[in-house]
Structures are given as structure tokens and as C-alpha cells.
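hey team, just a heads up i'm posting the complex here instead of the shared drive bc the drive is being weird again. everything in one block, sequence lines first with there labels, then the predicted structure for the whole assembly after. its two chains so it's a bit long, scroll down
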Amino acid sequence: MFRKVLIANRGEIAVRILRACREMGIPSVCVFSEVDRTALHIRLADEAYLIGPAPSRDSYLRIDKLIDVARRSGCDALHPGYGFLAENPALPRACADEGITFIGPSPETMETMGSKTAGKQLARRADVPTVPGTDEAIENPEDAQSLARTMGYPIVLKAVAGGGGKGMRVVPSDEAFASCWRDASSEALNAFGDARVFLEKYLDTPRHIEIQIFADAHGRVVSLGERECSVQRRHQKVIEEAPSTVVTPDLRRKMGDAAVRLARAGGYVNAGTVEFLVDARLNFYFLEVNTRLQVEHPVTEQVTGLDLVKLQIAIAAGHRLPFAWETITPRGHAMEVRIYAEDPDNNFFPCPGKIVARRIATGPGLRLDEGVYRGWTVPIEYDPLLSKLIAWGNSREETIARLRRALDEYTITGIRTNVGLFRRILAEPEFLSGQIHTKWLDRLLARPHPPVVPPRPGTEAAAAIAAAFWESIQPSSSASGSQTPQAAPSRWKQEGRRSQLDRQP
Amino acid sequence: MKFEVHLDSATGRTKHVVDLEKVGSSYKVSLDGQPVDADVILAAPNAVSVILNGTAFEIHIAPSLDGTYKLQTGAHEFQANIRDPRAWRERKQGPLEAEGRQQILAPMPGKVIRLLVNVGDEVDAGQGLVVVEAMKMQNEIRSPKKGKVERLEAKVGQPVNAGDVLAWVD
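-- predicted structure starts here --
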């Protein structure tokens, strides 16, 4: 096993990896930028090294500094987490040059499987379905139409020279083909001086379902089942769950087989995710491979009982996968929400700041993966992910009920979060019945929404009383309206007043 | 002590008068002139527990930079504007206005792109002082009171963090 592991990341994922190392008895080394001196991963670290100023390009993206820290601190392995350098082949190359084991796939695999076009070519060779289409221009409309018939409608015609939606037509049916073809090619000719078009299968409202794979260096490749990630806001995942409501055991085996074939074809080692688009008829099409640990890995952990980070470390150390794929079937249901410091009233703009107070969600069937704490100021320089709240239960219904309950418990005071968004989603009938696709959330958000739950009687009165009480215990409220964070009451005074109230803390 | 509490929420704006009278270690509470059965304590930092006629509420409170409070309980949020008895005496009516020397703080991280006043200028309450650009949106930072711009800390082009002092008005 490794002597010491460098964690080349920050935030909740650095904490996640640090915990895995600690459970395995492996010392770990954390790195931080100038604004992250007080970050949770540094507070929990065995060893910590400053790697530069706040901007990522001067700190967390500096391969030379990371390698220097690894060398100085005697690390023989490096975990990249996700984001930052996790999918940059230059990092595993630099590690290899220094004799440091990179916990992830080889740089060559990253290049062949990580790129969309190369990945698609590999998928075709491995007989993994890709979105059907011609890629090249079709000259003759009759040829195109017969191809469209074999692929099945709807299809989309796209200008070869195109872009920005110009020269593009969705063809809903065979009857519409001729007129769409005319429109697309004449628009393409006008816009680009080139009338040529090609065609592709049109996926109107696909689901995003991905397969978690694991491969060891001894030739064993397994699928750990799917994650349903269709709830997305502008292509960013918002809620992930496992299993998917539409994946049958048979489909799970087929998608798993395809993902494993692809991993074998690419010589994949360690953890990876094969993303698919799934249409209404449950046809699945390869989208891309993520050559790293995913943000949403905990939902797979909760339904498989595996610790994926520990597994990654063991495989990187040359161990064999300790189980056969056939033994992995999801148990129960798990769902993750990504809680961000975002202002829901301002188009979900990031709004970092100081966490004045908080109450965390605990109790049965809950897991909170996070890198924040009370009193910490969320820096503006990085992704504003605060916490991943994961619930699991025997059924999807129980899991959703737990998550709703947990969201009511989870309170962060001082900054705005997107928690209200999850309350809304978890109350939507379409979500509850699993009728979701990648455009579902954007359409939902385009509609006006009433408050999800009506307040209990007395809520407003209680709020008024609480506000008056709060004001009454503020020190020297010389003038209302002058309350600023700088003038915030001393915690010592507050504590003194609180204890004088002679109540349970 | 009597407080006039203005609450803004998704369902509109309301006004309540809360009277808190300390009796021993607890409070006698009346709401809009009517005595109510309410037990109110500070349960944790920034968390007030109210048991109102047996119904329990935990209300999380954070001061906003504009002098109001943000209240949150479960899925519900309120913005509270409070006038305490002293402020009340001095201003029976009219909009809320800050008193004394005021620091003008940046409410969000961003960049100062324009100064709208000079040191020494007389300004009205609500008059724009500085424009801060954040997330490609321009935000006018206003004076909380009528007075004179005493100091301008903000400089055009300067990046600021939330809570940085932009100006002083007295």
C-alpha cells in the first residue's frame, strides 16, 4: 500500500479523500491556496502545504507546485479528486516522471476516452451504440429519406458548414421530410454558401443515465450499475439517484455490458463513468466518458455498499477488484442533492459569503459530504458547492421523504442557497413519478411557482416575535437600520445573555 | 419593550407590533395588542425558538447589509424591518433612515466601476454612491441616510469583497 497520498484538490472532495485515506491508515497531504488556509480540508489534514494565491491557475492548477509538494512531503501517490486537473493527462505524466502513482487511469486512456470525438470512435469500434447519424453530407434527398426511415423519426438535419442552429431542421415524420430538407439546405446555402446537410437521430427529451465502471490492472472490469442524472439546470446536474426508475435488470445488464466493452477497448484502469443518453423507448446512446471520480459517486456507494475512493486507492496500488460484477445489484434507493451557495432570486448566481450559523441534517438514512462549517467564509474564487446531501432508503418514496425531511433540517444562515429549488423539485408530480429528462428542470423553472408548502398557522406571528426578541437582545441598538456584519453582536455577549435566559442550550 | 416589525415575504408585506415584557427569566409577549401564549428563547447562535400556543418554530436570523434581518424557518423566508422604541420616538412616521456615521459596505464581491459622488458631497437617503459590478450586473450602492460623504474608500477598477468599506457618510 502507499506510504503517503497527496490530495490535489480542495473542498468537499478533498475531505472525502482524506477520510478514505485515514480509514485505510494511510497518511495524507493536503494543499491549499492563500484563501483556503481555514478551509475544512486543511483543518482536518495530517499535513498541509501552501501552493499559491487564490486563483486556481496559480494554485490548484499548478502541476509543478503539486509535484514539488509531493516530493518534499514524501508522497508516493496522488489523488486528483474531480475538477481542476483530474482529467488533464499532463498530471499523470508528471507523476509518472517522478515515480508517483496517479490514482486514476493512464494519460493515454484519458486522451483516447476523455475526448468526445475520440471517445465516439472508440465506442463505434467497441460496438457501443452512439447517436445514429451520417457525420458526413448526403447529396441525394432520396438516400437521406430512406436512411431516415431506417433510423426512425424524429431525425434532425444539420448543415455541414453550420452552427448556431442555422440550417437545422427537426423532422418529426416522413411526410415532413421533403419540405424540411428544402428549408434546411436553402437556409444553409444562404447562411454559409454551402447547401450540404447531414442527418442525425433527434433525441427530443432524453434521459442522462450513466454507468459507474471499475477496472483493475489485472484485466477485471465491472459495472457498478447506473445513476440517473436527468435533473439538470443548463446541463449541470442538480439531483442524482440510483437506481433509475426506468432501468430494468435487463437494461442495466445491457448498458453495463456496453460500458465494460468500451472500458476494455480503451484499456481503462481505475474508476470511470460512461455517460449515455436514453430515449423514450429506452434505446441508449454513448455520450462521453468521465475518466475520474464523479461528484455524484455517493449514490452508487449507498446502493452498493462500496467505498469507491478506497477502491480507487487499492486498485492504484495494484490490488485486484475483490468482487465479481455479477454480485453487484443495487439495494434500496439513494438520491443526492447538490447544495450550492447560489441566489435563487437572482438566476442562481453564485453568492458566497460568511456562514453565520447552521444546523445540519442528521438521522436515519442520511449522509452529508461537505467542506464547510459555521464561521467559515465561502471563497468567491471556486465552485460554490457547499454540501452534498445524500439520502437513502428501502424505496424511492422513502428516500424522497427522507430528503425532504433533511432539507427542512438543513439550515445555513448568512448566505443564500439553492435548497428551495430541491423542495420544489421534490414536490413535483412528474419528478415523483420519474417522468424526467434533461430538459425537464429548465422547463419547470420557466414556469411561475407558488410556494411549495403553505406556512403553518402562526408562522408569521412567530417570525414577528422572533425578530422583536432578536432585536431586544442586540447590544446597544442605538439606531435600527445600522445593523451590519461589522456591528454584529459579540458572540460572548450573546452567549452570556443566552445563559442568563436559563434555558437548555 | 415595544417593537414595530415589518415583514416581507413571498405572500406580501405585513406589520406587527410586538411587546416583550421580561418577567423573571422569561417574557410576557403580546402581539398587536393581544396577549399571546408564547415562549421565546435564543436556542443557538442566530436561532430563535418560539413556542406559540404549543406550536414550535425555530427561526434562523441573519442581519442583512441594508440593516434588515433575514428570517428563515423551514421553507419560508421573511425580511424583517424593525423599529425599536427609541427610533420610534424620534421618527413616528416616514421611511426608515439610518442614524449616525454610516459605513457603506460592498454587499457582494465585485469590482468598483463608477463613483457617483465626491468626498464632501451632500447626499440624500437612497442616493447612489458607488456602482459595483458583480457577475456582469451593475449594482448601485446607495446611501442609507441624508448626510455628507466623509470618505470614499472605493476606487474605480478596484476589486472588492463583500463587506469591504466603500465609503463613509455622516
